[in-house]
Amino acid sequence: MRSILKSVAAVAVLAGMTLSAAVPTFTQAQIDSGEALRQLGKIAYDTAMARAAKATTGCTKDKIKIRKEWRNMTMTDRKGFQEAIQCLMSKPARYKNIAGAKTAWDDYGVLHYYQTNFVHDNALFLPWHRHYNWVLEEDLKTTCGYTGIFPYWEWGLDCGKMDKSPVFDGTEYSLGGNGEFVKGHRAAIGGAKPGSGGGCVKTGPFANRTVNLGPTPGIGGDSVALKYNPRCLKRDLNDDVCSKMASLRNTTDLILASSTIAVFQAGSQGEGVTGTNNKNFGMGVHVGGHYAISGDPGSDFHFSALEPGFYLHHGNLDRLHFIWQNLDWEKRKDAISGTGTMYNSPPSPNSKLTDNMGFEPLHRNITIAAAMDTVGGTPLCYVYEPW
């Protein structure tokens, strides 16, 4: 890549499309420091708020929820978010006749397990996980009384100092600390160095928590994966993965070099696509964020949703999608690409905006279209504040 990137508009011209002239030119230093991402986030925020300001019903400007980066939340909201998750961990499961589903928190692991092959590496990846986070937000409110900010975690702010992250530093206002160090372990991916933990989480509000489901088995299917298998929550924080796959440069490049939703969603998941100017997205920021946390169940493809950090991680991915859409809203507001099965295996029809996405029994099913606009009001009504 050139040392100085042209503006997003110039990049778009090379790809045969036009973006807003309001998007500035960024130097490599601005990209690497996060200043470019902050500016792009502000443009997206303003664009979405301007749409809401015109609304007379539904998601009006006075009703919008502002999602914030964890470090920008008040201590009261950080504490409230933790306690609401712990509340779900104490409520009975809504899935019945599943041996491993003991709590309302386990429900999210079961739903993600069942939907995994239909909401990854396909057209539903971004809208399904967007609505999934919203379902949790509503559940924390209606079941456990939490009315504070729903957070995201900007991975790139913590690469190189994961154990100092306010999300994972093990203090009272974090989501708990790293796992205890296990000598000789190796749970990294893509040739990255091993993480710095690997064992049970012993510090912070989620210390000594029990994981009831998983891990995903190679053989045995549902009868093994969904059985009751209590064990400690483990983490393996990994600076090398974060720096190589989920840095501020990685996230900004994904936005700047993705001229279509097909490139954006595939690039975020490391599917081997190249972006504008032959940009290589490597293993993708989605993989990077997961394996920066790693551990059990954090790096479990099916049951990673049982890791509390999962939702802050996917909040950040949703934020990138939010930014990408709002940089050229009229052309990108309904952009989806692909079928309804992972890697189109087995082959399935191309997805349509009118297709339903499954969330029962946690919430009613909705169409893809209903999850395309975060200020659409049917039911989404939120924006992402730059950190």
Automatic annotation (TrEMBL):
Could you cite one Gene Ontology molecular function of this protein? Answer: metal ion binding
InterPro entries recorded: Di-copper_centre_dom_sf, Tyrosinase/Hemocyanin, Tyrosinase_Cu-bd
Q: Output the SUPFAM superfamilies linked to this UniProt entry.
A: Di-copper centre-containing domain
PANTHER family, A to Z: N-ACETYL-6-HYDROXYTRYPTOPHAN OXIDASE IVOB-RELATED, TYROSINASE FAMILY MEMBER
What is this protein identified as?
Answer: Tyrosinase copper-binding domain-containing protein
* Keywords tagged on the record: Metal-binding, Oxidoreductase, Signal
Could you name the domain of life of the organism this protein comes from? Answer: Eukaryota
The scientific name of the source species is Podospora didyma
